[in-house]
Amino acid sequence: MNLYIDDLEPSTVQAMLIYIYTGRLPTSNDEIYKNLDPIDLFRASVQYDLNELRDLAKSTMLDVLKIDNAIEMLEVSDQANDILLKQQILSFIRLNASAVSKTTNWIDFTKHNPHLIIDAFRSLVTPTITKHLNHNHHHHHSTSLTTTTTKYSKYD
After folding, report:
1. Which domain holds residue 124?
2. 101 φ, ψ (degrees, to nearest 5)
3. Which of 30, 34, 40 is nearest to 69 (CA)?
4. What is the rounded distance in angstroms from the CA atom of residue 32 to the CA atom of residue 24?
5. Does the pLDDT at position 148 exceed 60?
């Protein structure tokens, strides 16, 4: 029986097989490590329903999250319906909105993913709800606007 996987990079397939057989991801000592794309590995883990690998790949993705790959990671988290990952990436984008919006893939992203632009914008303006640790169970609503140097709150 032959199995053809032509939608993933060879290094991703190799890393996935290493994980399946050993329970670990390649390390910097492994030859394929330098060619391994954590985003592609996350896609593969979702595609092949490898939940533990998905968690490892997600952690690895967040370790390498930067301005140049934030958009791709947001798209992947949305496609995988990974709400927590998506929120973490949106937080990063919110803190780096000016720089992220100047990346080369930003324009294509805005054309092909208008729902994610709405999510990103809402993450800038939607109040966050935090629970106080008292027994009255009151909710505190705050809206934060973030610039590159100062945070402002409607309570300032």
Report:
1. 92-156
2. -70, -10
3. 40
4. 13
5. no
